Amino acid sequence: MVAHINVIVLRWRMPEHARPYKTPFYPLPQLLGILGMGYVALHNSPSPEITEQVYKITGGILLVVSLVATFWVKVYMKRKLFEPDLS
């Protein structure tokens, strides 16, 4: 999902930038990918009885990954969140 969003943001921020490969039918594949991954995320439990547990575990993993990524960007890279690297 993040990769699809990154492609859309890159095309929006740098439309004239040279690319080795252009996605055909842009942005349709990216939007379909985002919607598809959203569907999978909402329907990822094998049975209705454990749906809440699956969402808690998935949410916990996403929270930990987000905190580590935020720490990495702020402390190690010494940048603001979502600051583009236009070098």
Radius of gyration from the alpha-carbon trace, in angstroms: 17 Å
Approximate shape: flat
Major sheet description: none
Total strands: the figure is 0
Beta strand %: under 5%
Tally of helical segments: 3
User: Terminal Cα separation, in Å?
Assistant: 25 Å
Low-pLDDT sequence parts: none
Binned, the helix content reads: 55-70%
The SSE order reads HHH
Overall number of structural domains: 2
- Structural category: mainly alpha
Give the overall average pLDDT: 90
Overview of the molecule:
- The chain has helices at residues 2-13, 28-42, 51-76.
- It folds into 2 domains: 1-43, no CATH class; 46-86.
- The chain has 3 helices and no strands.
- The chain is flat and about 50 Å long.
- With 87 residues, it is mainly alpha-helical.
- Helix content is 61%, strand content 0%.
- The model has no long low-confidence stretch (mean pLDDT 90).
What is the topological layout?
Blueprint: H1 2-13, H2 28-42, H3 51-76
Helix pairs in contact: 1-2
Protein name: Putative amino acid transporter
Transmembrane segments: 23-42, 54-73
Keywords: Membrane, Transmembrane, Transmembrane helix
Concise description?
By secondary structure, the chain is mainly alpha-helical. The protein contains 3 helices and no strands. The longest helix has 26 residues.
